[in-house]
Each structure stands twice: as structure tokens, then as C-alpha cells.
Amino acid sequence: MTTSTIQNLMKQMTLDEKIAQLLQLAGPFFKGSSEQGHITGPMAAMPISDEHIKNAGSVLGVSGAAEVISIQSTHLENNRLGIPLLFMADIVHGYKTIFPVPLAIACSWDPELAQKSAEIAAKEAAVSGVHVTFAPMVDLVRDPRWGRVMESTGEDSYLNQVFAKAFVRGFQGPDLANDPQSVAACVKHFAAYGAAEAGRDYNTVDLSERQLREFYLPAYKAALNEGCEMVMTAFNTVDGIPATGNEKLMRSLLRDEWGFDGILISDWGAVKELIPHGVAEDDKEAALKAIKAGVDIEMMTACYVQHLAELVSEGEIEEAIIDEAVLRILTLKDKLRLFEKPNRGVDVELEQQVVGHQDHLQVSKELATKSCVLLKNDHHILPLNKNKNIALIGPFVDSGDILGPWSALGLKEEAVTLKQAFEKHLPIEQLNIVTGCHVETISSQQLEEAVHAASSADVIIVAVGEDSEMSGEAGCRTNIQLPAPQLELLKALATCGKPIITILFNGRPLDLHGVLEYSDAILEAWYPGSEGGSAIVDLLYGIAIPSGKLTMSFPVNVGQVPVYYNHFNTGRPKGAPDAQERYVSQYLDAPNDPMFPFGFGLSYTQFSYSDLELTSTQLTTDTEITATVNVSNVGSFTGEEIVQFYIQDLVGEVVRPMKELKSFQSITLEPGDTKQVTFTITEQQLRYHHADFSFKSDKGSFILYAGTNSIDVLSHSFQLISQGRN
Ligand code: NOJ
User: Cα–chain-centroid distance for residue 129?
Assistant: First the structure.
């Protein structure tokens, strides 16, 4: 269709039909759905009529080829103008083949593999009828109390941009319009949902414009620059106004400044939530504020369909503002060719072949292997020798709850558990498997059995963590240690005098008190996805070598939170040569540094960094500096190292972070080998928002750091001698 054909279609639409396009409802509302009429809880109270449903623009949370075809065809029979529905769903890290959670994916520092995972997710979802995925989630996160950190790629703005782009490329592919195996992406949650105060979900966000622009906004922008079709509003306030009714954020910034002309959708119920937020008196005012802010689709509340027509007739809003939203929605439908092929990509037979395909599981395993982070490995206890007798203990040993809270169609019963993977790998007589405790309870009998099993083994492997309900949406915790029964189990096992290897399954950086003391080795496995068990066994036995690095700091304790690598120095930095003992920025009872910093992760081999050199120590707007560093494998395994480059601007007009990640490279080295890794420094990389928000660099002194994580680095200074600006 051309724009004029869409406009002609719009001319035939009544105002009510147009407004209904802005409504998004869950599957059970629709005729043709296998769940039709199963409307319970708050959904049942929604003032939605048959007329609204007949004319609704989109549906969420439905998939499955037969189901989608049934809903779409029934809808088309009933919709006067034959306007197809858009099907949207949360395909966050896999559809049926579940990949590790995004925080884990980020720890692979492998955007290509991340892109591949999104491509596969799109392929499986599209053949099952999904047109739009509510992903990627690119909220920058610094507070592990917040349950949704596992949906993010971590605390660093640069890395978040890299992954935002990779996910959008993967979901949408190079030709969204013509490739029915791709899905449109919807970046979320705009904006700064990850900065919820005190890590409590849906809580207030209050950031300076500088923090927003410098750290939080770039990843959303990166997704849009990559062509991301949609944006979802955040639940939180931004500068005192809920994002969903925030004109400054949505109109002035997103639309006018950034030029975004795709669809803006509210998060679930967020339009009506303007009332409890305290910026709207009732549904009508909520509708008014949201439409004025530029929200095109209202997800799962009925303020628009109930009140927009009235607001037009009262002259509170122009009909043009509704037309604008409808045009955007119809334009996406048209772009996806839904008017010609309302069943775009969806195919009952193909679905059977594509969804959960063996090749997809293989990629999931590869990604899980690269996402696990080895946090501790005393006395090189890992990798294990195959001759050892193993006691496999803990609530996650035979648990399929390793997919994470967003696992669409992934079934826990089908996930490869540690037990299954071990049984494939070792003769049964070398394995003694007991539960030890549940996630949050323990009995004396369980404890006894565990100690008994551990006493006769050579090595104890303990699989502990948080169940998937303990993180994710509304999954916040103030105590981010392992649940007490699991710590009790570890403590008891430590009395057996055998080496303990702890595997952690969880969705957030944890306070590892108790775990660190009692474990000889710790492997952070996150929620590793469908093939988790096999990936972990490969790592434990050295069939694969750990290479993952943290993208979110692990605090010493919850009192340090938020603790992140790119903080400021303060006027009284701890450890400065002239620092006083007391009056410096520090805690009396804990260090300032986290337990494990951003970028940290061990391998079975060791890497040594040397000879950080620059081709020049003077940079101008027209020149580049080439930095080189030698990285050697001085251990005895072939290993992959993620070489990280950071820069610090020593004196800015505005205070600059202690370090900012600017580049990284992954290299594989055989024992004894050395590779020279190169990084090109340009003046553009040194630009930031100045006091007046102009984006430019500062002349003066900088430090380049190269290293294996954000703390263990080599450094070299250089000067910028001419200033550049956008
Ligand atoms: C609420 C969540 O915040 C959002 O991420 C999700 O996409 C929607 N629900 C739809 O399920």
C-alpha cells in the first residue's frame, strides 16, 4: 500500500474504528481464541465491548500457528474494513528454544552470537504467528535488588548499545518487510526503568538530565538507529512525570529530537496507572495525558476506547492526533504486508519443524557456554578430571527452572538439567545425586543425606541459586544473598573436607557471603536456558573453557549498592596519596570496590598483559592514535580472552567517570602464544555532554587503560590537543 492508500482506508474509518486501532488486548478477548472468554481478575473489569474487540488493532501474548490463524481469520470476518490484527508477544531470549537470560548473554561479550540468538527467536516466533516482539529491553541497571536486571545487558552504556543493536538486527533481519521469518522489535522501557529507586520495581526514577543523556538514553537511541520499529513506555516517572504521560520525554525528545516516527506503545496498564501515580484524576484524564504525550497503543486498559471520542467532541484534542497514531499502526501493518498476507510467516506444518530445532538448541548451548562466568577457581580445581567421584547436590541439580522468568514457550520439563547432563557424561557409579535442600527450605534428613553423599565423593558439586520467581518483573529482593537454607547446606558440606564447586543459577549479581567462604570454585551460570546442563558439564570438564565476563558488578554486600565501575572520583577519593584516614569517601565497614568488578571473569588458563604502547601521545580532531597491547597465554589451556579498553578524561568541564569502556576484542590463544591487540583512539570517542549539553571533547590529559577487567589494567596517558564537537 502507498501512504495515500492507507490514508484512503483511514477516510473510510469511523472515529470509533480509528480509536479501537489504538487498543491492545490479550488473546482471551478474541473470538477464535482457544481461551476465548477466560477473562479473569482485572481483565474482567475492563469496560470492553464486542465492538471494541471487533475493531481492536492488536493482540498480545498469543502465539502458536493454529491459534493465530484462527484469531486472525475470525477477526477479518468480523472487522468491517478487513484490517488485520498485529500479534505482539514477549519473545525476550527465545521462543521455544530458550537462550540464556540477556544479562548472561551480555557476559559472553559476543554480539554476533547474541544477534544469532535473536534471529532464531524471531524465526521460531514468526512461524508461530508473532509479528512484533517486546524486546530488546535495554534499561541500564546498577541495582541488583531490582528483579529485572536479568533482562538487561548490564551497567555499561557502551555495551548496552552494542547489544541493543545486535538484538534489533537479529529480530528484524536485513529486510523486515519482505522476510516473513523476522519480527519487528520494540525497544523498552523508555526511559530509565532500570533506575527504580532502591531497586523496587515500578518505583520512582529521578535522574538528572545529565545522567539520563550520558548513561541511560544511549542504548534506546542505538536500537532506534538500527531501525527498531517500536518503543514501549516505562512504568516509572521521569523527572516527576510518569513516562507514559510525559510529553517532554515522548514528544520533545523521542519524536522531535530523535525523529522517531514508529509506534509508541504503553507498558501493560500504564495509561490507567497515571491515576495512582497522581497525575490524572480519572481514566479520561489519563487518556488525555497519554495521547498528548504521544502514546499510540494503550496496552490492556480501556481509557482510550472509553474517552478519546469524547475528548475530541469536547475539543480537548484534535482528531488529527488520533489519526497520527492510527497512521503509524497501519503503516507497520502495511510494512509487514499484513493487508496482503494477514497470516504473514505463520505456518502450522513448518512450525513443527522450525520451533525448537536441534540447530537452534546447539546455538543456545554455545551461548550458554560463553555466558557462564568463572568467579573463583582455587588451586585450579577446575577443570575436573573424569576419574573423580562426584557428589552432585542442591536444589538446582535436577531442576528445569533454569530458563529464566521470560521463557515464552520454553518448557522447564524439556530443559537439560545438570543431572541429565552428568548422567550422559559420567558412569552412574561415579555419581551420587541428592537434593540437599529446596530453594527456601531444608530438613535435617536432607542435610544428613547430603553430608553422607559428600563424604564418600572426591569432589562436591553444589547447584544453588534463586528460583525464577525470585527475579524478573516484581521479583525484587533486599537480601541478595543465597536463601539461608542453601547457605546452611554449603556450610555443612564444607565440614566434609572435600573440594566444593558451586554452580550458581540466578538472575542478579548476588552478595556471595557464605558461598565464597565455602567454595573452592564458583561458576556463575545465571539462567542458562534450554541446554544449560550440557553447557555447564562441558565447562566443568574442560570440553569448553570459560570465557564469560561480568557486565554488572557483584557487590560485597547490599549496602554498597549501587556499585558500578564507571563512577566519579569525588573530591575526597579513598586511596589518594594525600588522603586523610577518615574524611574520605568510603565505608567504615566495607571496601568501596565491589567483590567482582565489571569485566571480571576467569579462565582455566592465565593471560598476561604487557607493552601497552601508543603510536603517538598527542591526538587531534584529524588524527588517530593506535594503541597496542600484547596479551599472552601463560597458562596451560587454549583460552578465549576478552580484551577491554577503557578511557578516562582526567579534567573535563563536567566530571567524567573514572573509566569508560570504549572497545573490546575477543581473542583465542594457545598456551605460550602472544597476540598484539589494537585499538584506535579518535577524538570522537572523547566527546560527551558539556554543561550546556553540547556534545564535544575537552582538550587536555586522558588515560587509556587496557586489561582483563575494569580494575586490573595497564595504563598509558595521552593528550588531546584540539577540541571537536558535533
Ligand atoms: C509488562 C512488562 O513490563 C513488559 O516488559 C512486557 O513487555 C509487558 N508486560 C507485556 O507482557
Answer: 24
